[in-house]
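HUMAN:
Sorry, I am quite new to this. Are you able to go through these amino acid letters and fold codes? The numbers rather puzzle me.
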Amino acid sequence: MDLALELAAAAAAADEAPVGAVIVDSGAVLAAERNRMRERNDPTAHAELLAIRAALSARGTGRLDGCDLYVTLEPCAMCAGAIAHARLRRVIYGAADPKAGAVDHGVRLFDSPSTHHHPEVVSGIGAKRAGELLKAFFARLRE
């Protein structure tokens, strides 16, 4: 999670929402990304999706069975759907997102019977630091 938090800070420094994501396979980092939506003019360039794409490429497969995703913010519905399709084993996230999160809030995608894969979810890891980054970023936008 420390690497994901570093990436979130880098995202904030680049005027992106401070979210970082890291995918690990058997203790080895497969991919580490941050939000790049503004940089790429792409609303799908969330840290999770970029990390999933990079990890799939590194692995040379269409699935990430046995891999864990560390992300600083509860994934949205788009990212939760990609997580399920990629078959990630575990999602470990920092700050909860009651407004746009889709894991433990909102649609709770992994609890849906129509979702084919239900990863293990661990929340609150690094939540304090992730929350601080998010609050500072959005406070700066309101200045």
